[in-house]
Design brief:
mainly beta; Beta-galactosidase, Chain A, domain 5; nine-stranded antiparallel beta sheet; 4% helix; globular
Length: 301
């Protein structure tokens, strides 16, 4: 049975409330002196994050579906256990099943410094086993404060190793992507998915956006910074436990082709995705846990 807000009231604390959307999703609203945020139980999806005194840091499409079983466009979707199309399984949903399933609350607490710490959990069940035959538990540990910290913890509860891909598919809000840039991936090999997956080497200059961009940067653990010139700010994405970074913007034609994305919204976003995919996919032994983290923060000049 889907969870509703009423049965979660015992988790509420100062600054945290639960709401049922008209379509039947549960939204967690967080408002503290440090930041405001919205998180959905479906997909353990952080939809909004805004530090106090700043413009929103995450982009959420006005056209997104907020209905059960439909992926949310924007914020931070969780990709698991495969990234993109599943090789050899055209019937499988893109980016796996975790982003469209309802997660459960394991814990929610307000820390002494005002941060809200939320742990959401998804465990293998009949629906997941029908698509991917492995026993697992995933926890998304979210901290809402002056920074947004995320830790995606994958536990292998089966009796054999399994291999998976994952991503914290972070949509950053920018004033205008055409004047924005990304640093931190200089001299890094990437797969250019706009150019049939050709393997290329990034140069020494910042990444700039002049058309559709979909690049999978391999074997990189560095912090990336989005230089948001239009809003006169810098957004940093720090990470651990991740060897892949994806940079994405759909540009004009692809934006128009997506039913859950506004035709004219593409200048307002870019994705810097904390990922393990392709050659960097994870093989996890039984009774083991892998943790991947991403921290999104406003950086000083």
């Amino acid at each position: 049975m889907p969870t509703n807000a009423a049965v979660l009231r015992h988790f509420e604390t100062t600054g945290v409330t639960f709401h049922d959307t008209p379509a039947g999703l549960v939204r967690i609203s967080i408002a503290t002196p440090l930041a405001t945020a919205e998180v959905y139980l479906q997909g353990a999806h952080i939809a909004r994050y805004q530090p106090a005194g700043a413009a929103p840091v995450l982009f959420l499409s006005e056209k997104t579906h907020l209905t059960p079983g439909k992926a949310i466009r924007g914020g931070v979707p969780i990709i698991f256990p495969w990234f993109g199309a599943r090789a050899g399984h055209p019937e499988s949903p893109a980016h796996g099943f975790a982003r469209t399933m309802e997660w459960e609350i394991e814990s929610l607490a307000r820390r002494d410094n005002g941060d809200i710490h939320l742990v959401l959990r998804l465990s293998s069940n009949a629906a997941t086993l029908a698509q991917w035959p492995h026993e697992f538990t995933i926890r998304h540990r979210i901290t809402i404060g002056a920074q947004l910290h995320m830790a995606l913890e994958v536990e292998n509860r089966s009796d054999a190793p399994f291999t998976f891909e994952e991503a914290l598919h972070t949509y950053l809000a920018v004033g205008d992507v055409r004047s924005a840039s990304v640093t931190g991936l200089e001299n890094t090999t990437y797969l250019d998915k706009v150019d049939e997956g050709q393997r290329k080497l990034e140069g020494t200059a910042p990444i700039r956006f002049t058309g559709e961009t979909d690049r999978v940067y391999l074997d990189t653990t560095t912090t990336c910074i989005a230089e948001d010139t239009a809003l006169a700010r810098r957004i940093a994405v720090d990470k651990t436990g991740s060897a892949t970074t994806v940079v994405w913007n759909p540009w004009i034609a692809k934006a128009k082709a997506m039913a859950d994305f506004g035709d004219d919204e593409w200048p307002a976003m870019l994705c810097i995705e904390t990922t393990n995919a392709d050659a960097d996919r994870i093989t996890l032994p039984p009774n083991s846990t892998h943790v991947m983290t991403a921290t999104v923060r406003l950086a000083s000049k």
